[in-house]
Amino acid sequence: MDTQAYSKISNAALIQELYRRYRCQEEALRKRIVLLGMPGAGKGTHSAKMLARFCMCHLSTGDLLREEVRSGSEFGKKLKGIMERGELIEDEVMCNLIKQQLAKPACANGAILDGFPRTIPQAEKLDQILKQSGQQIDQAIFMNVREQVVVDRLGGRWTHLNSGRTYHYKFNPPKVHGVDDITGEPLVQREDDKEATIRNRLNVYQSKTSPIIDYYRKKGILFEVNAERPVNDIWKDVKTIVKTK
Ligand code: AP5
Ligand code: MG
Fold it and tell me: Adenylate kinase active site lid domain spans which residues (predicted)?
């Protein structure tokens, strides 16, 4: 057991994680699900709910990249500039990262892919990676939302860096201002949630990521959700889709 790694995690977060693993066993579905949608569509918000309920691993490529940036490595320094401009990291780097993550024991019960794939080459490579172990993407959930809605959401977002949990100062405030509900650690605003960067992220989404919607539609595994409603209403639909055989 890597006690060094655990020493960096608060007791409250560890206990919460143990409880989640114990409780979610009842509904382990062993599916691989892609969450699609613009920046701010609510992928992270609903990943957290799916994670608590269905025993899958949560692979947020954005969170993994931000962790690398925080490590201060040379590679992290390169990533930081690209992410702060709202551009995408190279496909090859991202595909290697996701391949390593999918092989981890935590993903044996299924996986939520949040922020990956983000280009058609990534989607094709993901299919190849999963095929090697007899797996596939079972569902792609497209969280549909208009641009003007996400600009407001991202401008007010607060994030707990270690877990990726997100809040919104108006729509989903933490119990105590500026503090994560679970760990009591401080919340921060993401560097790429500044207005100019948000605009670029939305342009990049339209040109490079949105074609993936049709990629999964053609495979007959696309499920569309109106993601402009309150979180609990969206969650009801997402839950029903995930439970669909
Ligand atoms: P990433 O971290 O994936 O960012 P993103 O896709 O831009 O999406 P966000 O995390 O901003 O939004 P979300 O949909 O998760 O929304 P959330 O639930 O937080 O990627 C960041 C960067 O990393 C990229 O720009 C790129 O540089 C790089 N990268 C990552 N993956 C890559 C890849 N595969 N290839 C290449 N590069 C990659 O919600 C947002 C806010 O709204 C929150 O405050 C939340 O509380 C609130 N909210 C959510 N739902 C609702 C609702 N229904 N009503 C009201 N408020 C709501
Ligand atoms: Mg996110």
Answer: 157-192
